[in-house]
Amino acid sequence: MFAINPFAALSTSISPAVMQGFVVVMIVLVALGTLFDIVHKGSAKYFFGNWRKTRTARELGGGEMMSIAVQTAVVDVLASGEFCNARRRVAHLLTMYGFILHAVSTVVMVFNPAADAPWAQLWWIGGLMVLVGGYWFWFFIRVDVAAEGSSPLRVMRADLFILSLLASVTFGLLWAWLQSWILFGLYIVATTVLFGGVPWSKFAHMFFKPAAAFEKRVSEANGTNQNLPTLSRDDPEQQARHSMELLRDAPMDMGLGIKREAPRHY
Amino acid sequence: MHIDKTYRRAYNIEPNMCWECYSCVKACPQNAIDMRGYADFAPLGHSVRVQRDEKKGTIAWRIKFRNGTEKNFLSPITTKPWGQAIPKLAEVPAPSQEMRDSQLLYNEPKYLRMDDGGLHTLEAAGLTLKKGVYY
Q1: Which of A11, A134, A208, B1 could lock B10 by a disulfide, CB 3.0 to 4.6 Å apart?
Q2: Share of chain A above pLDDT 70, in %
Q3: Which pLDDT score, from 0 to 100, does residue A165 have?
Q4: In chain B, whose CA is at the least distance from the CA of A257?
Q5: CA-CA-CA-CA torsion for B127, B128, B130, B135, nearest 10 degrees?
Q6: Nearest to A247 among B8, B27, B57 (CB)
Q7: CB pairs under 8 A between A and B
């Protein structure tokens, strides 16, 4: 089961050209949806407006910019470095890499019905990673459930992305396992909602989050720091100030204050 | 909470539901909440942003006025490592009925230091009160 290309078996009933056409339509929907999202939310306008503002500060050299770009790619994008909660970060990494493996192997197997191993195994592994990360997030980690005590079954429009992703992968794997036409229909519907719902979901975060993370690092490096304070206790000049007298003999690491316990007070 | 389309941060649109205590602004780990400073210290068109660094025990403020003037402040928010100097009430024996009926609060008079010779005064501590603000 794990070594067989599920789309090759399907080609006896549905022409490979139809399946390939569906994949192309989904890719076009993501591109159009993302462009619509950028225009509708004014993300690009905001990004370039902010960019112009930060350029009035200290000009960064080419080497510095390259280093910031590499840090953004490695820490913020590839390692999901922006998450403070370790469990949330692991769940995001599982879902993100699982989705990439699952989506790429789907495209390869649809366009090349002869592709079996290792693409079929990658399709299963990627799908299972999405399910583990996604359901862990949905039932245990997300703030509505973990901190605010809401029911995990409460659904709202903001959940469109995660729910359509989980539905698509769940029905996809169940169909490949049980070979039921009903499950295949649900798989197609959920997949269409996932890729067609980009303007209404947070699907486009995979494009704008890296841009935002890059901009944040640039503003930290050139001192504008998005107008956030830049004074720090590490600076000997600050340590000598009268207002810092009470901390003169205090350790530099005071431990955790409000972060000592998870916010579960509902 | 709504998103400010210019600054891309959240702000409270319901003044009745906000005490302007800045607690949420200080606690947000991504500094995603925006606030308008009080008019008595910053006229419109300013930016007031805060960074609470509990690991270092400090809070920093950066205020930018619309004429470009900038003010920066750094202050302590604790003088001892977090959690070590707070009495663990769960480990303290429950108060007796006599203590409940008393006018004294928890750990009084010990915390007022009246148990070792009365209330401490500036004079007793060898201090004097100076006029005005001094640094």
Answers
A1: B1
A2: 98
A3: 97
A4: B82
A5: -10
A6: B57
A7: 97
- State the angle between helix axes of A16-41 and A43-54 in degrees (0 to 180), rounded to the nearest 10: 50
Cβ pair A253:B54 closer than 8 A: no
Give the model's pLDDT for residue A206: 86
C-alpha B57/C-alpha A253 separation (Å) is 8
For residue A243, is it within any domain? no
Whole-angstrom Cα distance, residue A34 to residue A198? 6
Residue A265: name the closest of A181, A147, A122 by CA. A147
Q: Which of B76, B52, B10 is nearest to A258 (CA)?
A: B52
Specify if A161 maps to a domain.
Answer: yes
pLDDT higher than 90, residue B108? no
Where is A33: in which H helix or E strand?
helix A16-41
Question: Which stretches does DSSP call E strand in B31-131?
Answer: 47-53, 58-64, 70-76
Please confirm whether the linkage preceding B109 is cis (ω < 30° from 0): yes
Q: Is residue A238, in this structure, part of any structural domain at all?
A: no
Residue A1 has pLDDT above 80, yes or no: no
Helices (H), A153-251: 160-178, 181-196, 205-221, 236-239
Please judge whether B74 and A260 are an interchain contact, meaning their C-beta atoms are less than 8 angstroms apart: no
Whether A175 is covered by a domain: the verdict is yes
Distance of CA A63 to the CA centre of its chain: 28
Extended strands (E) in chain B: 2-3, 10-11, 47-53, 58-64, 70-76
- Number of compact structural domains in chain A: 1
Q: Which domain holds residue A88?
A: 6-232
Which comes out higher in pLDDT, residue B19 or B76?
A: B76
Residue type, A62: G
